[in-house]
Design goal:
alpha/beta; six-stranded parallel β-sheet; 36% helix; 14 helices; 2 domains; elongated
Length: 328
């Protein structure tokens, strides 16, 4: 059986200003080529797209095919193969059986391409993409790119992961579960590492929607030693710290994304408001924090008690999850 990525088109692969159909208006989102080239090692690709502009008379099926053929050919130039494009040409009021979130096209693809649905993904920037995936029993990723922010409040079904871009979504797909440990497991691992004279670095946070600021922080943290252990606030801990509307992604999804990163060696979820109990178990040589917390941060007494030190990392680019979902 084959694993597939079922891709929405407009707002996921290409920038959509609204009923985009002219070939001259084709513009891919940054990172799309890189993302698909990384994914093609393990997945094949199919596009499933609602094209109500045809049914509404804004453009013809011929217009659609010209635009779509150019998009597919541009991807082909980047050595990315789209196995097939399925499209619904109907306006919503037609109540057809092919418009997402109906699974007609996925069922057709399953027969034609021998699809392993449980190991496949639907990725898109609209709630009906998530509905499609859930109805078909695939995994789902909701993108905040395209129209994702606009429709975020309409999400009634929780996706498996919410990402700011297709490129970042890869981190969830490429998760490495063996890196995710319990506090008891990491305590034992830390003791063994110390016997081998390995320098252990810790940091902690919510890491809700991974962004460049997070990546910089983790990269700089890893540079401070041999092994980087990331303490991840559990869902209950995030709510206590951030309020009832957070986190956007649940703890399993956030841990999965962190586990995919080469600079992260282990991820440990903790329930407390602070990581103090986790630091007591690990006894790190270095604990990294954002510069805004200062050397007298809440973790400092615990870290110093075991001979460790605090390392501060400057903020990078002003990125934050709150800003990513601003206005949502």
């Amino acid at each position: 059986m084959n694993k597939f990525i079922f891709l929405d088109r407009d707002g996921t692969l290409n920038i959509d200003e609204g009923y985009t159909y002219k070939t001259k208006d084709l513009k891919f989102f940054p990172g799309v080529f890189k993302a698909l080239n990384l994914l093609k090692k393990n997945f094949k690709f199919i596009i499933i797209t609602n094209q109500s502009g045809i049914g509404r008379g804004y453009y013809t099926e011929r217009d659609f095919n010209k635009f779509n053929n150019r998009l597919v050919n541009e991807l082909k130039k980047q050595k990315i193969k789209i196995e097939k494009t399925y499209y619904c040409p109907h306006a919503p009021e037609k109540n057809c059986d092919c418009r997402k979130p109906n699974i007609k096209f996925i069922k057709e693809a399953e027969k034609e391409f021998d699809v392993d649905l449980k190991e496949s993904f639907v990725i898109g920037d609209h709630p009906h993409d998530i509905g499609l995936g859930k109805n078909a029993n695939t995994k789902t990723i909701y993108l905040l790119s395209g129209h994702g922010k606009k429709h975020f409040k309409e999400l009634k079904i929780k996706p498996d992961y919410i990402s700011d871009s297709l490129l970042e979504a890869i981190k969830f797909i490429n998760q490495k579960k063996e890196k995710i440990k319990t506090k008891k497991e990491i305590e034992k691992i830390a003791k063994g590492l110390k016997k081998k004279n390995k320098k252990i670095v810790t940091c902690n946070g919510c890491f809700d929607i991974l962004h460049p600021g997070h990546m910089y922080f983790l990269e700089q943290s890893k540079k401070q030693g041999d092994i980087l252990v990331v303490g991840l606030n559990s869902d209950s801990s995030v709510k206590e710290n951030k309020g009832p509307k957070r986190p956007i992604n649940n703890e399993r999804a956030r841990a999965a994304v962190l586990s995919s990163l080469d600079m992260v060696d282990y991820v440990v979820i903790f329930d407390e408001k602070t990581p103090i109990k986790l630091l007591e178990a690990i006894k790190p040589d270095v604990h990294c924090n954002g510069e805004e917390y200062g050397y007298d941060c809440i973790e400092a007494p615990t870290v110093k008690k075991y001979g460790g030190k605090i390392h501060l990392i400057r903020n990078f680019g002003g990125f934050s999850t709150t800003k990513l979902i601003k206005g949502v």
